[in-house]
Structure formats: structure tokens, C-alpha cells
Amino acid sequence: MQNYTLGPPLQTYGPNIKVTVILCVVGLLLCLLILAVAVEVKDLTAWTIFYLAAALFGGVVLRQLSSRAWLHETGISWRGISGQGEMRWRDLERMYFGSYEIHAHYIPLGTFHRLRLVSARGQKVSLGERIGGADDLAREIAKFTWKLLLEKAMRSFENSQDVDFGKIIVSRKEGVRVRTWYDDKRIAWQEIESYEHNDAYFKIHRIKKRFAVSVSSEKIANAYVLHALLDGVMHQVWQRGPSPAEGRKVS
After folding, report:
1. In degrees rounded to 5, what are phi and psi of residue 205?
2. Averaged in consecutive runs of 10 residues, what is the pLDDT profile of the chain (251 residues)?
3. How far apart are alpha carbons 123 and 82 in whole angstroms?
4. Residue 138 — φ and ψ, nearest 5°?
5. Contact 66, 5 (CB under 8 A)
6. What is the phi/psi pair of residue 170, to 5°?
7. What is the rounded end-to-end Cα distance, in angstroms, of the chain?
8. In what order do the strands lie in the sheet with 75-80?
9. Where are the domains of the chain?
């Protein structure tokens, strides 16, 4: 797809081959099973179910194969079976990215990624499981948007406004608040011993607490901005007194 609005693409991302193969294998096995039943019972209903299942899995695979994304200097564009769209970096409000592993009867099928973008205008697009190289795409998006989103977060923080990162809220006065399904867990700045972040989770270790507070990375908006904001705040907190730890954990 040529996109003259955002300029020439810097990089192209095609469909996720691993997900496509899994969909084809699962769909083929299920359709063969239904076909065997239809041949055995020689019933119109069974044949109808077979045709519907074949059409359904065919549509799912076609949707997967048609997925594309293009990285541009000024934004990102994408195309799928249902249409196409684009989002400029200046309009990007939130990026949710995380990884997870899938096992089938203790057999590892690999690591998969989820990537979701939300603009300031409410536009949403999910690309992770459809696009191959979603982890690389997420890193590139972070490079283009890091400065702008960090400046926005710092302005809100300095004005004593809560900075919303999805499941994690940062407050200049109160510290960090982690949203859970049953309650909010509040962590004062002085209680933070260290923190670490990777594609799977964001963990905050507390002083004299055995277990860390852990949040799935895919539930955090702009985790790379959150990490940078904590870097600046905790550097000042630890400088005001003896550091409760040798330093933060970074991964």
C-alpha cells in the first residue's frame, strides 16, 4: 500500500507466520474431524456444520494473511481484510505492548506479542498477534514517541496531576497506585526499593516486603515512559537519604 499522507515507509511488517501456521493446523484438524463425522453419518446437518467451519477458518486465515503494517517517519499505517488506517505519532496517546508464552501439553509453541495503539481521538488498533515482528515494531514506535509522551507525562506530574499508565497510576504526592480487580494497592515513594520491566511484566519491589507488586506489561500504557518517569523520581528520592537498595533493577 502506498501512503502519501505519511510519506514513504521506512519498514514493512507482514503477517505473523507463527500464528498463521497454528491457525492453519488447528483449522485443518478440526475440519478433517468434522468431515469424517459427516461422511460417517451422511447427514445434511453434519455437512452444513463442516461447510460453515471450513468457511469460518478460511476467513480467519485470510484475515491473518492480509494483515500488513508500515512504519513511517511521521506515523504508522496498516491494512487488513476489513480496511486500512493510519495514525500519526503526534496523535498517539497510548501504546500497550506485552509478550506471553503458549504451551500445548508442556510443549512450548513460542513467545507471542500483543500490541495495541490508542490515539488522542479515540482511534484504536490491535496489531500484535496479526503482525510479525511486533516486538521490533513496538521498539520503533517507542523511539518515535518517547520524547513527546515523556514531556506530556512530566508536565502532568509537575502540576501534581495523576499520570495514568493504565493499571498503574503515578502521583507526585502519593507515589504509585496499582489497580487490581479487587482493590488499589498504594506504594509511597519511600517504600520503593527497586523496580524492573521487560516485555512480560512490570515489577515494583518494596522495602521489607517479600513479594513484588507485578503487573502484566500488556496492561500498562506507555510502559517505557513510566520507566523513564520512575527513573527521574526515584533518583531524587534515593539521593535524599541512604538508598534502600544498590539501585533499581533494569531488564
Report:
1. -95, 135
2. 73 90 90 92 89 92 91 93 90 94 76 92 88 92 94 93 94 91 87 92 91 93 94 85 44 43
3. 15
4. -60, -40
5. no
6. -110, 130
7. 36
8. 11-13, 68-71, 75-80, 83-88
9. 1-16+69-145, 17-66, 160-239
